[in-house]
Amino acid sequence: MYTLDAIKNTIIKAINQTLGENKVRVSDLVYPPDKEMGDISLPCFNISKELGKTPAEVAQSLVSGLGSTIDAVSSINTAGPYLNFKIKTTSLAKDLIKETSRQSHDYGKNKSGKKKKIMLEYSNANTHKEYHVGHLRNISYGDALNRVFTANGYDSIPVSYINDFGIHVAKTLWALNEYFKDQEPGDNKPSSAEATADKGEFLAEVYVKGAQESKDNETAKRMIEGMMKKIETRKGLEFELWQKTRDWSIAQFDKIYTELDVKFEHIFYESEYIEAGKKLIPKLVKKGILKESQGAVIADLEEFDLGVLVVLRSDGTATYPVADIPLAGAKQKKFKADTSAYIVDIAQSLYLKQLFKILELIGHKEELKHLAYEFVKLPGGAMSSRTGNIVSYEELKQKLVNKAIKETKERHSDWDEEKIKATAITLAISAMKFEMIKVSAKAIITFDINKALEFSGYTAAYLLYTVARINSIFKKIENRKQKTENRKQKTENRYFDKLKEISEHELLMQISKYPEVVKRAGEKMDPSGISKFLFELAQGFNDYYHSVPVLKAEEDIREARLALLQSTKTVLENGLGLLGITTLEEM
RNA sequence: GCCCCGGUAGUUUAACGGAUAAAACACCAGCCUUCUAAGCUGGCUCUAGAGGUUCGAUUCCUCUCCGGGGCACCA
User: Fold this and answer.
1) Distance of CA A213 to the CA centre of its chain
2) Is A98 a domain residue?
3) Please, which pLDDT band fits residue A484 given cuts at 50, 70 and 90?
4) Is the ipTM of this complex over 0.90?
5) What distance in Å separates the CA atoms of residue A455 and residue A427, rounded to the nearest whole number?
6) Nucleic acid strand B: bases within 7 A of protein CB
7) In terms of CB atoms within 10 Å, which of A41, A138, A169, A322 comes out highest?
8) Domain boundary, last residue among A32, A66, A87
9) Model-level pTM?
10) Distance measured from the CA of protein residue A67 to the C1' of nucleotide B33, in angstroms
11) Are A471 and A536 part of one and the same domain?
12) A251 and A164 Cβ atoms separated by less than 8 Å
């Protein structure tokens, strides 16, 4: 049990003993809005009703009843109906610093998931199309959730589903042949596309042309449909072109996943399931789960208040569920999860409800969940690849890297190019993820690239900078001592009496709350609380950093402060780790 | 028309039904011979409206207004 939990339990036990029966629980405790009031508080409204006294009277009587019986508590006060506890800095420091030192990278984890298997599907990108900041939000959120679930004791399985076979592919390939082909038939020399460094991005550009033409030009539209049919035959030149270009996109995705340090246990592709889905449809019609209507095949879900879902259009072409239904079966067969969660933007809520209902009717027993998040728009309105009103992943990354290089150079004229670049890339990747995670999943992100390029305030850079400052102090202390021996965090009791500053007490309290934050992020399925917590912790530390010297303090105090710094660093690193962000030694 | 999400400071966002609604950005005024100024300190300004439930509502319920999204063959 974590230090703060243990303290809360002791407090609750003492209160219940004083009352003579179990009237309060740990979950009744709150944190006072003002730190002056205390560290932990019990609102006495509920028990006052049962006791037939006013809340203020109950609080008063508890103060005298409790006396000074609780070891970890230094003082108990009332503020009207609130019973406020102040925790002894020394005992908090003693338990907490030992705990963070011993558990290190495991500090904050818990077992509430009880090994329950949860499969998370995210980063559902389309091949032959742009990878933009909308996808970045999906993958950052999904990856953070995967890490959060794991930290909460779940057996979390990250998977991805790539849409590589829709009509958008035909649009791209048709436009590629029509407008971007500079080879003669049978010519083996590479096309200009193959000469470009980033073929995946090149395809995105081709897609825009294809999408435009299919909208404005009837002939083009028909030719694109013809292209789709040819690809579906799975042989011939068009199919080979599909294979080749599909690989370009997949290579681009792999590169992005590597950059973002995102790993999947398995990646599923639509092209692997679409045929199985088409074969499945007549069987589902026979079972009465699907039916023919107006020439199309639909799922009539009116009786469940879910409207109607078209599965096969009247021209025989497939819609999403055709592949999604067999995919769900394949996912279950492969991983046998208790819960299968789909991290998909909120606009598709209805579709996912419909899909889940169909899967349920087919006999799926796993819990099906839609983890919805709002979309990313630009200050000028919604993103649209057709109008070109998008911010691509690559564009954002490049701008961030350039900015970070400039900022880093200004501060470290002695660093070589390589070190500057490596630092800048870590900063850029961290900023990209953090900007996507720091707001709740339910908030629409109005993505302003100028704000994303900001390195001060509530940003990843601020957090990394805070860690770098701590590292810098440790580096100085190591230089001062023998370089040979590895410094260890001092956890002897005699040091903890030395932590007497209010800012030290507050820092300890913040650190002690971290495990609760991790748990809550798992329960709410939203990692944004972690980013907010980390920012506040960093603020608390920076405040401390400015108010109190570490290296120049007298030896015992210095050791105690160094231990506190180490604990702060552990929490910052662990928390950032849950967001998929790695820290920098210096910056 | 029905359904879903939102409406909080000039802007972007926080706030398990708890105390005086909080940060960041922007703007103004300060702080580098204490450990990295990518930092710190101070100032300015907020719950769309009306009811209800509650000891207590930004939070829960109802209605209205304003954004955004979704509702059978566009992905």
Assistant:
1) 37
2) no
3) very low
4) yes
5) 9
6) 4-6, 12-16, 18-20, 22-26, 34-41, 55-56, 68-75
7) A169
8) A87
9) 0.95
10) 50
11) yes
12) no
Residues 497-556 of A with CB under 7 A from strand B: 528-529, 532, 535, 539, 542-543, 545-552
- Residue A567 near residue A97 (C-beta atoms within 8 A): yes
Strand B within 7 A of A41 CB: yes
The C1' atom of B3 and the CA atom of A306 lie apart, in whole Å, by 10
Residues 42-61 of A with CB under 7 A from strand B: 43, 45-46, 55
* Per-residue pLDDT tens over the stretch A355-376: 999 999 999 999 999 999 999 9
For strand B, is any atom closer than 7 Å to the CB of A471? Answer: yes
* Residue A343, strand partner residues: A371
DSSP symbols for A312-359:
E-TTS-B-HHHHHHHHHHHHHHHH--SEEEEEEEGGGHHHHHHHHHHH
| Residue A481 located in a structural domain | yes
Task: Specify whether A346 is located in the same domain as A235.
Answer: yes
Nucleotide lying nearest to A427, CA to C1' measure: B38
Q: Which residue has the higher pLDDT, A134 or A495?
A: A134
pLDDT digits (tens, 9 = 90+) for A208-258: 889 888 888 888 889 998 999 899 999 999 999 999 999 999 999 999 999
Assigned domain for A73 exists: yes
Residue A353 identity? K
